[in-house]
Structures are given as structure tokens and as C-alpha cells.
Amino acid sequence: MSETTGIDIPGTRRLARSLMRFATGAALLTLASCVPSDGPLTRRVVEAGAADGAYRIPQTRTIFDVVTIDQRVANGVTTHGTPSLARTFGFGSAGGAPVIGVGDRLEVTIFEAGPDGLFSTTDRKSTTIPVVVQPDGHGQIPYVGAVRFAGMTLATARTTIVDALKSKAVEPDAIVTLAGNESRNVAVQGEVNKAGMIPLGLNAEHLSEILARAGGATKAPYDTYVTLKRGGRQGTVLLQTIVDNPKEDVFVRPADQIYVTHDPQTFSALGQTERVGKVPFNTSSLSLIEAAALAGGGNLTTADPKGYFIFRYENESVYRHVVGDKRFRDLLAKGMTSDGQGRYPIIYRLDLGDPQSFIVAQSFPVRNRDVIYLSRHPATDFSRFVSIITGTLAPVTSATRTVQTF
């Protein structure tokens, strides 16, 4: 103890060193919890998904499954996940002759053999009668009365009129033509050059023919979607799909609604990819291996090849095929919910450390609005931590030396 100050210098130094060690330890713990992160590690995603069979985000309680991509999964997603108008509506057929409907305008020309008949004179042998089919389906013909035209073919309408006039006119005959087609229209809206009501002809027409009559799409077919609504059903495919696959060029029906929208296909690349952000397809279809190439591949120094993930909302039919009906029911019981369009959240995982993955990835399709995430390698966090410590401990060490020389 100093006689002049009464302070125990060695004890004070020990106390100061203890305080510095405590402060240093606290700083390290704080730094360890503050290491910059740009997404979950592979282990975090995989283990969280395996913990109770479904990955749960506590804040929103979103539940989804984590599925490793193999050839079975890739084939199932391709087969069941590709939108199809033919599956939704059936390809259809040319069908029979079109029938008359409410609102149609007809021209009924009636001929008679005699010069002074009901519909003939000395100057002409026929009379043309305009008929508009009323909401009750009927139309009026002189000397015949109300004829129910709705549901008849033109040939049936002719026979009906002639039969009704046989006892009243002189050797009657008739021709029934369609002057205005109001009941057999198709509505075409959106990104076409001539949107509006397109009347169907007497022959059955394909979807591509109706789009052509509407002036065609204004944008590239690989970025243009065609939605067909019929009754309570709806289906959407890329215009390029209709061009490439004749089975998708279905026959249209009266009262169909067709919407053409321009929505460039993109996916978002996140994590340790060389190119981060929204990436356009610029093609009608894109495989996972092609998407990885568009994203510039992975960062060689920070990426974890075992952690390539695709975040997606998947259609129920695809989900059930991939995980199985029992598993799907279990996920629903745990609280998994759809996005309002019948799609459910799922994560697909690809292990690029396995050579087979490069083959499988060629047949796994990337969808519009997918999020592709490449996880960082666990060693990256340790390297960052060490670099932070190296820069932070310098002033702490300097302070410790100051105390030691006190």
C-alpha cells in the first residue's frame, strides 16, 4: 500500500484486468450475435423442416415442407405442375352444327309456287322476313305464329317453317340464314390489338384463331398469358404453350371469356449467387440448371453447394404427388394454408454436392415468381466473426496494456 495515497496498487491492477477480461468477453458475445447474415444456413432450413416435419415461422405461423429434388420429384412437378387448358376443359371437338340462340338475327325467305300466294306476287316469288329471337327463344313468322328458334339449327328451323305452311301456302319452301350472330360471341380482352366481342362462325374455331381475329397479342408469346374462363372453370397458360403444343389450342365455345395479359416471367436470385435480384426468363420454359446459370452460378468462396433452395407456392395436385396424400393431410392439420389461389408453400432443395443433381436439375422446371436461394457456407460466418474480432480487440488490448502500466 502506498504511504502517501493509501491505495493498493497491485490489487487495483488485478481488478482492472478482471474488468477488462469481462468487458472483452461481453464484447465477443455481442459480436457473435451480430455477425452479418444474408439468409438462413442450409442446416437451419433442413433441420427446421425435419424437427416436426414442417418448417414453421413463429411470427406468421407459415408452415411448409422441405423436399429434396430427385428424378421422381422433378418428373412429378413437370407432369402435374404444367398448366394445361386441355386438362381443364378438354380439347373438345368441332361438334355438330351451331344452333340459334337468343338475340340472333335471322332472315327467313319464304318461296311459293303460285303468283298470288301468301308470300308471292306476280312480280316475285318470295318474301324475306327479318326475325330477332326474343328472350323467351321465340320469333314471329306471319301465318305461322310464334316459332321457338332457340336451340334449333338453321336446317331444323327451315323444316319447321315449311311444315307449318304446307296447308296454307302454295308449295312453300324457305331459306333461313343467320344475319346477326349475337348468341355465339366470345369476349377477348387485354393485351390484344383489337379487344372486343368476337362472333363465332358456323364452323368451330380454335383459341388461336379467335386471338388472330382479335388482332393477335401485342407482346412476345413467352411473356404473354392467356386465361380462358368457361362457366365456373378457369385455366391460364402461356401463349407460347398454345403455339408449341397443338393439344392446348382448344376449341372455344359461345360465351367463353378470354383474357390476354403481359406478365414477363422472372425469378428472384438471392443469397450467394453471383447475380442477385430479379432475373427474366426470356423464354417460355426454364430448367433449374438454366436458372442457376442465368444467376451467374455460386460464389466460390462463400456458397454452400448443399444448400440450393427453391421457394414456391405449389398447386395442390403437385404438392400431393410430391409428398403423398397422408403427408399433405398432416401438413394441413398442422396449419398449412393456401395463398387464396389453391397453392401451398413448399421449399425444394437441391444438393449440388451430388453429381446426380446436375442431371436432375435439367428436368426440374423453374416457375414464374420463384425465389432461388443459395445458402452461404457455415465457415463464412466464422471468417466474418474472426475479421470483426481482429478489428475490434485492438482498442481493448491497448486499454489493457494501459492498465498494466498504471
Summarize the structure.
The chain is α+β, with helices and mostly antiparallel strands and 406 residues long. It has helices spanning 9-33, 42-51, 71-81, 85-89, 154-165, 207-213, 239-244, 288-294, 316-323, 325-334, 356-360, 378-404, and strands at 55-57, 62-68, 105-111, 126-132, 138-141, 145-148, 173-180, 185-190, 196-199, 224-230, 233-238, 257-262, 266-271, 277-280, 303-315, 343-350, 371-376. The protein starts with 8 loop residues before the first helix and ends with a helix.
For the termini, the CA-CA separation is 14 Å
Q: What is the oligomer described by this structure?
A: single chain
What characteristic shape results from the CA principal axes? Answer: elongated
Q: CATH-wise, what's the superfamily of the largest domain?
A: Outer membrane lipoprotein wza domain like
Mean of pLDDT = 83
Order of secondary-structure elements: HHEEHHEEEEHEEEHEEHEEEHEHHEHEH
The major beta sheet can be summarized as: 7 strands, mixed
What is the level 1 CATH name of the largest domain? Alpha Beta
The gyration radius over C-alpha positions equals 37 Å
Give the CATH topology of the largest domain: Outer membrane lipoprotein wza fold like
Q: Can you walk through the features of this model?
A:
- The chain is elongated and about 135 Å long.
- It has 12 helices and 17 strands.
- The protein folds into 3 domains: 42-68 and 266-381, Outer membrane lipoprotein wza domain like (Outer membrane lipoprotein wza fold like), CATH 3.10.560; 85-94 and 184-262, Outer membrane lipoprotein wza fold like; 105-180, 2-Layer Sandwich (wza like fold).
- It has helices spanning 9-33, 42-51, 71-81, 85-89, 154-165, 207-213, 239-244, 288-294, 316-323, 325-334, 356-360, 378-404, and strands at residues 55-57, 62-68, 105-111, 126-132, 138-141, 145-148, 173-180, 185-190, 196-199, 224-230, 233-238, 257-262, 266-271, 277-280, 303-315, 343-350, 371-376.
- A 7-stranded mixed sheet has the order 1-2-16-15-17-13-14, with helices on both faces. A 5-stranded mixed sheet has the order 9-8-12-10-11.
- β13 and β14 (277-280) form a beta hairpin.
- By secondary structure, the chain is of the alpha+beta class.
- One of its GO terms (molecular function) is polysaccharide transmembrane transporter activity.
- This is Polysaccharide export outer membrane protein.
- InterPro entries: Poly_export (IPR049712), Poly_export_N (IPR003715).
- It comes from Mycoplana dimorpha.
- Keywords: Signal.
